Amino acid sequence: DAKTTQPTSMDCAEGRAANLPCNHSTISGNEYVYWYRQIHSQGPQYIIHGLKNNETNEMASLIITEDRKSSTLILPHATLRDTAVYYCIVIPAGGTSYGKLTFGQGTILTVHP
Amino acid sequence: DAGVTQSPTHLIKTRGQQVTLRCSPKSGHDTVSWYQQALGQGPQFIFQYYEEEERQRGNFPDRFSGHQFPNYSSELNVNALLLGDSALYLCASSFLREENQPQHFGDGTRLSIL
């Protein structure tokens, strides 16, 4: 599985957009980019995923570069409740591969009032 | 629609004991995966169960074993507990046949070994 690199920590002001980068330069053509977050004392929460097109849902937007070597998760209007550890994970397409999510250290996002 | 539920939420054991943790998957899901999360680290994959069989396994000793029942619920068993087994144990479920179905996690069982 492709390895991902994320900044250790980031800060964001409440109400502003939070842009969380992820580098996955060794990603293969059939590998998806998934984002999860983990709020303190809770299990990881799925946010969004994509293959090569930009994606948007009610929680966030995912921008994947054309060469697919990096991506950015965008929280358009961050709130204090978005303070969490954000994980970028690359997952091969296919059935049994879903079982093994390889988490790195993630990015600690702190949203300030 | 209940999500992934795990029990108990907290557990304290002593070295050498055995423990069983339980997980009920999200409604409609048939695959259960278990993860161990040490303090300050990301979750580490232990194993995955589908159709009552272990399908994939991470780098964990055979002191860690599991089971999946016909109703898709699952148990994680750890024998001969070590201090290093203290961690948050997370269960995740998904529907295997639906391509790129994201896994949904429970809030975990916090296991402390004294």
Helix/strand class of chain A: mainly beta
User: Which oligomeric state applies?
Assistant: heterodimer
Find the structural class of chain B using helix and strand composition. Answer: mainly beta
Query: Based on DSSP secondary structure assignment, what is the total number of beta strands of chain B?
Result: 11
Please outline the major beta sheet of chain B.
Answer: 7 strands, mixed
Task: Please state roughly what percent of the residues of chain A sit in beta strands, choosing from under 5%, 5-15%, 15-25%, 25-35%, 35-45% or over 45%.
Answer: over 45%
Rounded radius of gyration of chain A (Å): 13 Å
Approximate helicity band of chain B: under 10%
Q: What is the helix fraction of residues of chain A, given as a range?
A: under 10%
Mean pLDDT of chain B: 94
Along the chain, the helix and strand elements of chain A come as: EEEEEEEEE
Distance separating the two termini of chain B: 37 Å
- Supply Rg of chain B: 13 Å
Q: Summarize the largest interface: chains and residue counts.
A: A-B, 25 and 30 residues
How is this fold's topology laid out?
The complex is a heterodimer of chains A (113) and B (114).
Chain A: E1 9-13, E2 18-23, E3 31-38, E4 45-50, E5 55-56, E6 61-64, E7 70-75, E8 84-92, E9 107-112
Parallel strand pairs in A: 1-9
Antiparallel strand pairs in A: 2-7, 3-4, 3-8, 5-6, 6-7, 8-9
Chain B: E1 5-7, E2 10-13, E3 19-24, E4 31-37, E5 44-50, E6 53-57, E7 64-68, E8 74-78, E9 87-94, E10 104-105, E11 109-113
Parallel strand pairs in B: 2-11
Antiparallel strand pairs in B: 1-3, 3-8, 4-5, 4-9, 5-6, 7-8, 9-10, 9-11
